[in-house]
Design goal:
The protein has 9 helices and 5 strands. The chain is of the alpha+beta class.
Length: about 180
């Protein structure tokens, strides 16, 4: 039997309380993704073993739910709001400006993996439309940037692409317009 890697041992420790036949898979997947930012092949194997399932079963659940990732996420995620208020206030133009500035597709990321853009579901702060949320993995921050126009969206995307943190971006006059 091969020695267990440090990563697998860490995953095994994370999911040790979950038991087969108790409907624990989603909770375990959320715990893994919260810890690592995504669910790796090692995590699939360990969780399947822990819950007495085939890895294909775990993979099927992961790919069914949009919120789970199989690839490491960008360091900074820009989540674009697609709600009706944002769409009515040129949210599509804001999205297109951000994507063009970063040179990536929706649900993609910059070549260096620094900034990604994903769809965000309306969070009910429609008075700030159009808006995006900036999520930083390293600091676990989640900032709303509202009342965007194309020029502010481009400045925001450039600043994040060039290494600014969400806090720095929000404090700077270059984005506030």
């Amino acid at each position: 039997m091969p020695l267990e890697t440090e990563a697998k041992a860490q995953i095994r420790s994370l999911v040790s309380e979950f038991r087969p036949g108790h409907g624990d898979m989603l909770a375990a997947l959320h715990r893994i993704q919260h810890e690592f930012g995504y669910i790796s092949g090692d995590a699939i194997e360990v969780l399947a073993d822990q819950l007495g399932l085939f890895p294909a079963h775990v993979y099927g659940v992961i790919t069914y739910y949009e919120e789970f990732r199989l690839e490491p996420p960008a360091s900074v995620d820009i989540r674009w709001c697609s709600g009706p208020a944002c769409r009515a206030r040129n949210g599509g133009g804001i999205r297109d400006a951000i994507l063009a500035t970063l040179g990536c597709e929706m649900d993609g990321m910059t070549e260096d993996g620094r900034v990604g853009v994903r769809l965000g579901q309306c969070n009910g702060t429609c008075e700030l439309a159009p808006q995006v949320w900036i999520e930083e993995r390293a600091t676990h921050t989640n900032e709303i940037v509202g009342h965007l126009n194309a020029a502010r969206a481009i400045r925001l995307a450039r600043a994040l692409r060039d290494g600014a943190t969400a806090t720095e971006v929000l404090e700077s006059e270059t984005v506030r317009g």
